[in-house]
Amino acid sequence: MRGFLGGSYEVPIAELTERSVVRFACERRKTLLLADLTGSALKALGLNNDISASADYVTSQAWARAIHGASQRWDGIRYVSRQMNKGFAYAMFKRSGLRKLRAEKLKARQVDDLCDQFNVTAV
User: Fold this and answer.
1) Whole-number Cα distances in Å, 31 to 28, 74, 101, 109
2) pTM assigned to the model
3) Which of 8, 16, 30, 116 lies deepest, with the highest CB count within 10 Å?
């Protein structure tokens, strides 16, 4: 991303047109167990949203490694999205058993709709 200029975020068009929607499946079980790094669960760990608010992933990756190593039961983590603080993001561990079903490039209309929704100008 280039930055916030002239009232919108400027993002190189190649970064937008190379994005895909990826679908996954898990054959081992229907429900995955995720460590919750949101809300009161996050506060109970003595943390705040700084863990997911930075473009520097050193801290968040360290926490993911610590959770991964703490117990085999965790399939991944759930945290507050840095880009959309009312939404969640997920980091899945390889041991979760997820496998990629397919990846589909975003269609031009989808890119346009997302740009409108998030105030992005393709440059």
Assistant:
1) 9, 11, 17, 33
2) 0.77
3) 16
